[in-house]
Amino acid sequence: MIKAITGTKDILPNEIPKWKFLEKIVEQVFQSFNYKEIRTPIFEETILFARGIGEETDIVSKEMYTFIDRSQTSLTLKPEMTASVVRSFIEHSLASKQSLLKLYYISPMFRQERPQAGRLRQFHQFGAEAIGSTSTLLDVEMIQMSYHILRNLGLKDLTVKINSLGTPKAREEYKKQLKKYLEDKKGRLSEESRKRIDKNILRIFDSKIESDQIVMNNAPLLIDFIDEESKQDFEAVKEILNQIRIPFEVDPKLVRGLDYYTKTTFEIISGKVGAQSALCGGGRYDLLVEHLEGKPTPGVGFAAGIERILLACENENSFKLPEEKIDLYIVKIENNISAEAAGLTSKVFDIATTLRRKNLSVEFDYLNRSVKSQMREANKLNAKFVLIVGGEEYKSGYYNLKNMKTGEQQLIPFDKLDSILIQNSKVKGQK
Ligand code: AMP
């Protein structure tokens, strides 16, 4: 049997309603902050991510789906969206049309990580990017939008963590100090962390291994090394968060994976999803546009993982969806192969066509089932009404219409069917 690739997942029809519910909330919140949707290709030239995310990051050095196509170009399935959005921003000179761009996306992403609960190889993110301003209001806006979305999904067990990474210059100085601190403690670090000393020293803070954590507990902190402007901005972010009453914690060890982050970074953590607890993360990237050969332009953004958020929703039992219903199920009384039955079938099809044109959801039987099993199917589909076509009433110009909620039945003349059903349906009739 051919199966889906490890770390990928089918989203089956019974799961779709919760995805749609989440997507609707995401779109509402982004619209309320005036963000416009952007869609970019699934794959890009590998160099975009290598440069935009940083060669030494875990994503680029270990996790990308990279392949050579038939014209010998190295391509990569997108592992995150910021680099693609910035590429598009530069390529289409979007800054010339508008000085501040507020963009959002919902898209699959691809990373070859070790699959586990809340960690997949094809997963989905929604997120936003605001390109063109250094205003700390936009840093806060990212936290605010993600927090609104998570709260609107009913999630309660949330912790907002923030930190400031300062400028790369301040970070370089700090990295030297950190290296000095680790010099005589190498022996107590795990092999993985030892490798990171030269390659991506900040990520040692992310290690889940206890011995690494003990060493890192007394390490010097980046926040004590950052420049004055970054410090002021960080104070401003905290003040605005207090003003809008979003609870947060300062986490000086929150380093995040991308090289081109500057100043504010944040993550929102769920207490209900186990080890992979970050639901979303983001931050400022004032040097990225320039780094990808655009005119120097500041930016800030965030990304959130949909599968992980839905897992948190399930574990918190945070929302309940209304049962799916259809407006009408049409039951046909004759199911033999007589001319009369063929006439009924064509009538059923006509009725369904007319009502579907008016946007009612209508279903009927395609499998020549008995009346009893057609009724069973109507129940399974939560039909609001069942229309019975055939029998004595039909011969005298009437249908039998049953209201499935009240059990009430009425005979209705052929020409009144549309108006009665449309009146009873919440869906507006539309030609
Ligand atoms: P990142 O782009 O690494 O900052 O990730 C942002 C968010 O995307 C995380 O907080 C997760 O919710 C989600 N995410 C990242 N990697 C994965 C993955 N492999 N599987 C599922 N969700 C992920």
Summarize the structure.
The protein is 39% helix and 21% strand.
Describe the 3D structure.
With about 425 residues, the protein is of the alpha+beta class. About 40% of the residues lie in helices and about 20% in strands. The protein is built from 16 helices and 16 strands. An 8-stranded mixed beta sheet has the order 1-5-6-11-10-9-7-8, with helices on both faces. A hairpin with a 7-residue loop joins strand 9 and strand 10 (about 280-285). The longest helix has 19 residues, at about 340-355. The radius of gyration is 29 Å and the shape is elongated. The relative contact order is 0.11. Adenosine monophosphate (AMP) binds near residues 113 and 257.
